[in-house]
């Protein structure tokens, strides 16, 4: 289990509506959304409600014991479990590799079980200027997928996601997530599946040279080294340092070196200048403790930088409630699939026989798709940074966040960081609705 749960008055809850029983929102907890830790990992660290807690539980990955064949079976079962009793299944399909794996498995299962499968694509242009819908349409045609395909124009996505007591929504393009839910509902779907979690859970971590050398795996070692070298001097330097840490006598020293090399921005934490002085001080104190605890966790549980990197990719990870009126599920985050994925040796995530660097680094995801389809698969990751950051240019003054005492108006005037501006907007919209509903904000 890698997704957190909530506790209210010492009782675990499944319905987020129960978080609001106190009617009080703690500004100190909400301020953590602007900590460097939260900005880097893109998660909400704690529950913002009085008398409640957000509990992060985890099991140390074994990285041994599961074969690729067993992973495929776990994936098939995860899709079936996610579909449940739904007669119409929607898939949020961007045209990328992860959502393609979900769509292919889902459409196949729907065809065999007499269900309808509807692929929904928000037609956003990637950084290369390619439209997502055309890319997705070509894949559906080339792989002969039995599904309907619906396009969403970005300008039609005008409604924000449903407000949730869990906290501000941190999706990159929240209105598009809501639009996908609305289209799925109009298509009669009872469930929406997505490829969320695949990058974090199945992607190739860094620092695998040592593992490849130990296993005398020459093809993997050579291919991996070529890819690392293509990444530039810093990537080569870090791989070399990771290899040398095998000579470090203690796990704690190895963990400290890992943190200093990989998270330098989190080694000297400064109080967030957007917050009031009191909130900035408490936030800084919290994140210093979080970093200390994280280093201890690495030292106690991981013997290599590769293991620590793989874990940092997947934890912490949030999962927000449904954006609209249709339930959403992520087969890659199914508990049984997570356990299977974290029982595969890390070095098996890298597949040197694939010509594309992207396919080699996403070897496990590619293995979930029929091998005869490899030539049709996308050979690079879709990047939508221009579309995402474009949202930050049109932003209202965060009146509500200022009035409740969360943000400092003086610091806001000099805020030009686009990622931070998107976070401000998400928090402002959440506070606005919370105030409308009559909830109180307390220190």
Layout of strands and helices, then pairs:
Elements: E1 5-8, E2 11-13, E3 24-26, H1 27-30, H2 36-41, E4 52-55, H3 68-83, E5 88-92, H4 97-113, E6 116-122, H5 132-142, E7 148-152, H6 174-186, E8 191-193, H7 198-202, H8 209-214, H9 218-230, H10 233-244, H11 251-262, H12 277-301, H13 305-314, E9 327-329, H14 335-341, H15 357-361, H16 363-367, H17 385-389, H18 399-403, H19 409-412, H20 418-436, E10 440-442
Parallel strand pairs: 3-10, 5-6, 5-8, 6-7, 8-9
Antiparallel strand pairs: 1-2, 1-4
Helix pairs in contact: 3-4, 3-14, 11-12
Plain-language structure description:
This protein is globular. Among the domains are: 68-201 and 317-383, Rossmann fold (3-Layer(aba) Sandwich); 206-314, no CATH class. A hairpin with a 2-residue loop joins strand 1 (5-8) and strand 2 (11-13). Helix content is 45%, strand content 9%. The mean pLDDT is 90. The protein is built from 20 helices and 10 strands. Helix 3 packs across helix 4, helix 3 (68-83) packs antiparallel against helix 14 and helix 11 packs across helix 12. The strands form 3 sheets. Strands 7-6-5-8-9 form a 5-stranded parallel sheet, sandwiched between helices. A 3-stranded antiparallel sheet has the order 2-1-4, with no helix packed on it. The protein has a two-stranded parallel ribbon with strand order 3-10. The chain has 443 residues and is α/β, with parallel strands linked by helices.
